[in-house]
Amino acid sequence: MSDEAQDLAEVRAEKLRQIEALGIDPWGHRFDNTTPIGSIRALPGEAFNEARPGPKVRVAGRLIRYRTAGKLLFLEIWDQTGRIQLMVRVNKITPTEWQLAQLLDLGDLIGVDGEFGKTRTDELTIQVEKLTFLTKSLEPHPKDVYGMGDIEYRLRHRYLDLIYTPDTLRRAHQRVKIIRTIRTHLDAQGYLEVETPTLHAIAGGAAARPFETHHNALDANLFMRIALELPLKRLLVGGIEKVYEIGRVFRNEGISPRHNPEFTMLELYQAYGDYHTMMDLTEGLIVACVDALGGDRTIPFGEKTVTFTPPFQRAKYAELFREHVGCDMYDESAVRAAARVEGIEPDGKAHDVIVQELFEDLVEEKLVGPVFVYDYPASLCPLTKRKRDDLRTAERFELYVHGMELANAYTELNDPVTQEQTFRQQLAGLPADESMAKMDEDFVRALRHGMPPAGGLGIGIDRLMMLLTNTQTIRDVILFPLLRPEAK
RNA sequence: GCCCCGUUAGCUCAAUUGGCAGAGCAGCUGACUCUUAAUCAGCGGGUUUUAGGUUCGAGUCCUAAACGGGGCACCA
Predict the structure, then answer these.
(1) Which residue of A94, A191, A351, A463 has the fewest CB atoms within a 10 Å radius of its CB?
(2) Nearest nucleotide (C1') to the CA of residue A380?
(3) Domain-embedded: residue A332
(4) Same-domain check for residues A298 and A420
(5) Using the CB atom, is residue A442 less than 7 Å from strand B?
(6) Could you tell me the residue range of the domain that residue A64 belongs to?
(7) CB contact at 8 A, A250 and A224
(8) Would you state the pLDDT for residue A324?
(9) Per residue in A132-169, is it b (16+ CB within 10 Å) or e — as a string?
(10) Which nucleotides in chain B lie closer than 7 A to a protein CB?
(11) Who among residues 248-267 of A has its Cβ near strand B, under 7 Å?
(12) A294: phi then psi, degrees, rounded to nearest 5
């Protein structure tokens, strides 16, 4: 902290001592029966009139503006439902309260009782009859609602960002709304919500580097989970036929506007379904979320718009590949040639890996969507059932919107012999820790006891949030995104 | 991990070609009983992120570090 900040803080500390000297506790106490500011503003406000007093109200909030006019003070306080002006007149309160009012700083929390009405200039106002001090703010707040320009400052002081940047609070509410909608939607269809461990002995279910940790008493190395998949599928074996979890997963990877090391996933599994079941479910789920936000089904995203009108477009991976890459994805020599044209070195890579790299480079960005891309190269999908008439192809789809993967789903592989083989199979060109094929003996054993044929779906909640709330960075849909620890 | 950009008062930002570090808001003192991004008079406030270097002279140029942003890589 600089000397200057200490000066401003010192002024506040001195005021705190003066408040104490008035016999007032600067840290406040229980203050019951307040009305949210938003509700007060909804009352009919009449001009102040001694003969016909307005309703008595009680509010608590944070002081965000302070204007003096001699023996008259105008304050504004804020709570999460809005802001309102207070008028403090010297002859309406006690001398001690008046002295207290002189000692207020922006950022302090106060409570008031008073009469609700309108000033001569038609501003909804509470004329203060009793002023209660609730909490001192010892640090200066940003100058006011027009500040908060520095991203790092906002992220490291999210509590201030919530107060002074309306969008931050709005997104927090929208996030809850979306997650609640998902729960309501799934619960209504008979899905059981469960919680599975975040500490795993084997970090499986996705291709990602895990965070490592250690349990002292067991002297065991453990991993933070990178996916929810494998525990949930064990529950399918256990007879929970419709199951889901909304939970945090952790991936030890780079940070970007679309990646935070911990993020929230929805995964769900339905016994006796398949990936087409999941497509219909995904559509309903996403439209329900769009509708829950209360707007139109055509929503803005940056410079673009997205229209979530079912049914969403459905396109085969192989056909999109042919259209945008210009060759048959099963034609090995043509694919290798196309790769070289794109600057992708095909040597030493498995055919399906090259195909996928071409798809990512040439096709994804063209997918405005929402579009279900389905039937993926099988070797990229070690947990997915192959098509019964085409073993090169896996019954999997991803939902794309503006090049972003919003959902990933497949018909679950329930054949333990094939599962064990794909776990053992090392995809050429991929180092071991980048493969999603991590041998999990216990999971194979579970499958050996019989997992029903099933469809499964995963949705990254944060990216869904970004898209539905027109937010360009994942940092602003997560209240506390990971930052490097502050330098001393 | 690599490349590019940024960091100046509590907050938001200026500072010409390398030539006295500034403004608004916030703060302090005072005036004002209907203000509202109040107004008026006055006053303080800086290790220009950090450490070196070049120079008569560095906010400005060079090197390195810290933190942040964007991109790449990683991430099906």
Answers:
(1) A94
(2) B76
(3) no
(4) yes
(5) no
(6) 3-141
(7) yes
(8) 86
(9) bbbbbbbebbbeeeeebeeeeebbebbebbbbbbeebe
(10) 1, 6, 9-13, 24-28, 31-39, 44-47, 66-76
(11) 251, 253-257, 259
(12) 85, 0
A124 C-beta less than 7 Å away from strand B: no
What interhelical angle do A351-358 and A332-341 show, nearest 10?
50
The verdict on residue A347 lying in a domain is: no
Higher pLDDT, A334 or A76: A76
- Do A405 and A472 sit in the same domain of this protein? yes
**Burial per residue of A435-472, b for 16 or more beta-carbon CB atoms within 10 angstroms, e otherwise:** ebbbebeebeebbeeebeebbbbbbbbbbbbbbbbebe
Same domain assignment for residues A177 and A86: no
* pLDDT on residue A1: 30
| Residue bearing tokens 């094929």 | A437
**Cβ-based contacts (< 7 Å) between A 390-409 and strand B:** 396, 408
Mean pLDDT estimate for chain A: 89
Extract the tokens encoding A321: 């590949």
Q: Which residue has the tokens 């940092």?
A: A475
* Rounded Cα gap, residues A290 and A288, in angstroms: 5
Between CA A289 and CA A178 the distance in angstroms is 5
pTM for the predicted model, two decimal places:
0.88
* Structural domain count of chain A: 2
Distance between terminal CA atoms of chain A? Answer: 10
Confidence of residue A365 (pLDDT cuts 50, 70, 90): confident
- Strand B–CB A207 distance below 7 A: yes
Rounded CA–C1' distance between A33 and B39, in angstroms: 37
Those residues whose C-beta lies under 8 Å from the C-beta of residue A333, and which sit 6 or more positions away, are none
Predicted local confidence at residue A426, as pLDDT:
57
**Continuous H helices in A165-313:** 166-188, 229-237, 275-292
Give me the CA A119–C1' B33 separation in Å, rounded. Answer: 12
